[in-house]
Structures are given as C-alpha cells and as structure tokens.
Amino acid sequence: RKEVEQDPGPFNVPEGATVAFNCTYSNSASQSFFWYRQDCRKEPKLLMSVYSSGNEDGRFTAQLNRASQYISLLIRDSKLSDSATYLCVVNMIKGSQGNLIFGKGTKLSVKP
Amino acid sequence: DGGITQSPKYLFRKEGQNVTLSCEQNLNHDAMYWYRQDPGQGLRLIYYSQIVNDFQKGDIAEGYSVSREKKESFPLTVTSAQKNPTAFYLCASSRTSGGAADTQYFGPGTRLTVL
To answer: CB under 8 Å, gap of 24 or more: what pairs does B53-56 form?
Structure first.
C-alpha cells in the first residue's frame, strides 16, 4: 500500500457544484494531516490542517477517519478560482522525527 | 514581509556542471527542507535540517548536497552525479520538526533544466 494515496482525477465540475476528495494513508501512527493547494507551476500552499473532530473553513470541510485511515476534503459551491491540484499530506514518524509525505494530488477543474 | 525566498526562479545547466539553488527564510523557523517535484508526481524529500549545522538525507539525496551554516539559509547543490536533475525544486520551512511534524511553508520554487 502506498504511503499516501489520492485519486489523481481530473475532477471536472460546474461552478456551484459540491466536490469531495478522499485520501488514504498507510501509517496508523500518523499524527498530523493537511490539505495543500497547488496551482499550475506554483508552490503548494496550505489550505487547511485536518483535526480529529473535523474542521470547516468557509466552503471547505476536512474530515479525518483514523479507523479507516483516510481523510477527506469537501468543497461546496465551487468557484472557478478553486481550479487547482489538491495535495493530501500526512506525517510519517521515524524515530523521533516526523516528516511529511505528500500525495500526488487530485486535479480539480471548475468550469463556467 | 516574512516568508521564504528561492533564487533563481529558472535555471539552466549544462551536463556535468554543479549548480547551487538558494533558499532563505525570515520566519525564524528551525527546520528547513528541500523537495523535488517531477510532472505528475508528488513531492519527494531530498534533504532536511532541524537545526543549524545539522542536516539529514531524505528519500532521494543521491547527487545532492546541502549546508546549514545559518538559521535563515539552506542552499542546495545539484551535482553532476545527479542523473536526472531537470525538475521543480521546492524549499520549505517549519517552526520545528518534531514527532508531530509542524506545518511547512514553501518558497516559490526553482525550475531547473539541464541542457
């Protein structure tokens, strides 16, 4: 099983649609979870951290399911500006060191 | 402005040459990282540093070298031993690098092309 796995997409949705991305991770000891957004030929930017209780930031909702080892990102009322690649990021513990492992990303294209 | 800067934005190298990519941060972060991204691929960790004068190899360190003489700076040298150096190189930093892996913030990246 890959360390962090995402559906590569692309997800092509109309403006106003609701879209959900899932991500699975292999290390049950992982403690930190994030969603990053990456625009074409740009650096990744933090979208939101994912907490055990789930968290919401405007149109974006992140959920964590530790038992099944997956996290999700829900985007409501999609905007054209949401078009980007969304990276699922999970930390992997090696000794006392925690390094982040990045998924390959899910591409979202929002159409008028 | 606080942030992470990388230079140059674009870099062209002839085969057999070493090149050094710059990364500077003024966020007072202890930890710094170098990643490589290839088209359609996830980020892969090259080297990281938790503290000044200390650094560790990541998953793909062969053909690369780093130094961390100052907290603010973490330059990456791509040597001629790196077989496929053409890629997008991203530098990141975080407050700490403990077991919980603090949030990382990225610089704008350097796009390296070997001619």
So the answer is: B56/A97
